[in-house]
Fold:
Amino acid sequence: MSSSKLSKITRQHERTWSQLHKRLIDLDFNFSGVFKENVWEYLSNTATSTSTSIGYLIPCILASTAFIASKKGSLIHHKNHDMPFNLYILFVGPPSTGKSQALKQAATLPMSTIIDNYDITNFLLDKCTSSGLAKTVAENKEGYIVSPEIFDLLNKLLKSDDENATGDAQLLCELFSGERVTYRFATERVREIDANVPFSMVGATQVPFAARLIARLDQGHGLLDRFMMMFPPCYRPTVEETDRAIQWLNEQNIESLTDIFLEMAENLRKVNYKFTDDAQALLQQLSTQEIEDINQALKDGDPVPKCKKCDLVKRIAGCLHIFNNIATNLLDGQKPPTTPQRITKSSVEAAITILNYCNTQKQIATEFINNIVSECVENEARQPSKDVFKAALLNFPGPIVLCRSFKQYGPRALRSISDHEFKNIASQMNAYGKIVTVRVPRSTRPTLVFVKKEPQAIDWDVANQICDRETYLTKFTLPIHNSVSQGIKTQLTAEGHINVEL
Structure:
């Protein structure tokens, strides 16, 4: 990574990052659907009681659960393949929004208590040098990085890898995948890291530092794809809300998250977790889509998508399965039974929801940062507002707008729009049209289509704020864009969404 590219990111106006952060946290996500009802209520009050965000707490819970499961020797088994629970999670937010409190409550304090109670070697890492990482993991045969400013640690490792070819990026990739690694030093003994070593990472940073990390990580070695990167809403609770949450927690069966993780360390056994039949069917769909995307990219001569979605979904689902089982029983005042060995479909669906949210945010941030680097933008780079996106949709030629067509042929500054963002914005334009999905033959991914209303069906007294009637009429009467296939036009006509000469 050249210093000139990093300097372009460093010189960006402060409002560039604050506007990017606002755009990312505006993406809707319902965290409550991830956990069981009583668990969600407890976690929500725990976050409020420590004046932090539930969006900060969840990454810490997932990473800590993953590490404990791996430490117990548990693996995830799917189709004759075993993988560790290891997770790399990075969450991003401005200063003074409670990142350190979340790390303390759901990572540092529980793990320190486990170390003390079981009188075991300290496996926590917050800072380490390039060679120190390999040596520590090789000697301890485990490692859990918990850092309130993970930029310092990762930047040091990746900088050494850039300048000295130390292989740190490759080591992190291998630890994630559970591969066996051997390090041979000229002046020291051979360091060997066994397969499926327990190793996870969770840390926080701020938006400008996250941008620099993304630029360093996005080098084609696949390390960026192994990271879950979350920009959660991080609004601080009021003093009154904090007081109410503390009072509510005092009436519960669990004093803190530490109790849950202590019980988890006692409850879990060395087992291979598998998936129920309906969960396997859902994973099969994900795998099919991933293979289709890779093959299509090869056919089109495009860069092959680098994605670890299937692996991450399985690991997150396993963590949710374990945590929900332990926490819900403790909250009900019961001793948790042995965690069921088969992971359910609901856990897989929740994992997909979380990962889609993270990947959407990471995609938007990565494309925006790449745009800064490639176009040498050093002044403030403004984010397009929702109204700008809406106006561009209405000015797209023809009575329909495909998400895929908009990404390829819409205004250049707006082509970074994600499927989630397209659907979210189009669903807010009921005055002008509706969002529909079309299934294309030989593809498992539905196509998003915004169908415009007939000009005479629009209430222009209300709708004139975004697009005037004359402009809308001109664009609406233009032919459908030639990027729209005949099959899609035929299907939309058959379903009554459009009525045009095809």
In short: The chain has a mean pLDDT of 88.
